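Job type: complex structure
Entries:
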Amino acid sequence: MLRKIKRGYAQWSFAYAMLLPTFIAMLFLVIYPLFQAFKLSFSNADQYNSLNVFVGDSYGYVGFQNYIQILKSQEFHQVFIFTLVWTFVNVFFHYGFGLTFAIMLNREMKFRSAYRLLLLVPWAMPTFISAFAWRFIFNSPYGFLHQFLVEIGIRNPPAFLGSDFWSKVAVIMVNVWLGIPFMIVTLLGGLQNIDAELIEASKLDGANAFQRFKNVTMPGLRAVSATVILLGLIWTFNSFAVIYLVSGGGPGTSTQILSTYAYSEAFDFKQYGAATAWGVIILSMLLVFSSFYRNAVRKSGEETW
Amino acid sequence: MVKIAHKKRKRSLQASLGLHGTLTLAALTSILPALLILLNSFKSDQEIKSASGLNVLPKHWTLSGYHQVLTDNNGEFLVWLRNSVFVALVTMIIGVFLSATAAYVLSRFIFPGRKSVLNFFLVTQMFPAAILLVPIYQILIRFPIFHFSLLDSTPGLLLAYSTIAVPFCTWMLKGFFDGIPKELDEAGALDGLTPYGIFRRIIFPLALPGIAVTCFFTFITAWNEVAFANVVEISPEHYTLPVGLRTYIFQFDQAWQKLSVSAVIVTVPSLIVFLFAQRYLVSGLTRGAVKG
């Protein structure tokens, strides 16, 4: 550490020089657009006064009006609540199933590598293909699930993508299905890093399977879990493709989450000012949440990244 | 990895049935969509859309879907495929090139501002699609290059994707560089290598597997991207696969046969690549992006 500081300015200038290409790219690609987004979020920009190929911009600034309108609106509350449900239900099942399968796959057994490979298929398929395939499965009346339910004697299966409730269930199912492999893979990695001797020792001490799970396996997985759960929450909160491609946010706005709603505000309704305000609200929520999360993890004595 | 060396214990029949039963059911669920798509690709639209009972296997096998997809509208599917491959490849190259040096510096040097740079990269991972999309759209409209509009063009999409790829690659590559022992830098310095020489001759070659994994994930992210592509590309000849295939089924007359065929053509190479690369991807992922 000390030596590093002693090497001093020559090192710093080298570091900054190496950062330069990335910095310039980030300046144009991320920092400037981000600044623009903040500016737009305080404006009344829409399709008539801005972002028009033929005429120049003529939008004006309206202060916090977009934010106030959004936070007061019925849609925001409805979409926000479903976003929370979507995020927590998804990550809960991702982690739950992921851990279950990771523990199963971590033992010696027949067909282990075959199971492992097959369970990773949702991860290997292009997301948009999976989304389309599930859209077929949920189709009413000729989709697989509808026909399957009729076959086993359920007379009138619901139209899965046609009802407010079932379309919510459907998009969550697809996303759970999609996210389990990532958890299996990372948790298996974590399990293999747990010292085998620790497990042996606890066996000799007479710990039963549940005690071993609670006192050896889970503490050993703490660091990995903290990271993948945070990543999972952020990704799921912000996810776009599954909802957009499976239900399109519908019927109505019943399966919209904040990120898809903001997108549709921008590109279906062309309310650019309001859409960027939605974006800023979403980003602030994630920032607040993740700093709380990291503090909580750090307090429990776990080193994060 | 420590191989678990416990004595082989006979599992009770019940436990064994439970274990294999659960895993078989899970495996079936995980391949169900792929299986249905494959079988549907050999059915006619009429057969796919007949609601008379559960017919998983095709009654009348046909390859007409394959013919249609490859030839319809002057082979537009092949154009989308080409666009997708091109955009994903170039995004990957841009991402890795513009981020490698910064990732190295962030992994190895302590300098004023390092912490804020790292935090900023972390924050970019939380950007919702909507926040950069509108301003990027504005840039694409307002800054034509040589009177050549970036909106509805492949360069425009590349520009948009770089906003995701550069921070993503920086973050991921830094993780891989962190995994290379610092003693190697010091040994290089003793041998008279300049800091840049250390990066070029020691770190970069050693990180090649990690760089390959980063390339792969960047490719996949661009390949799967739909929010930007849907906004930037307006005319069908510029569509990428997700945007193009969406038009098959998000219309009144849903063309499931064509969709299934296209899906098979796109999925088979992905599965093959994955089959061969999965070991590296998995170890790369657990070491790089997600450090335990």
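Summary: Chain A touches chain B through 112 residues (CB under 8 Å). The domain at 73-270 of chain A is CATH 1.10.3720.10 (MetI-like fold).
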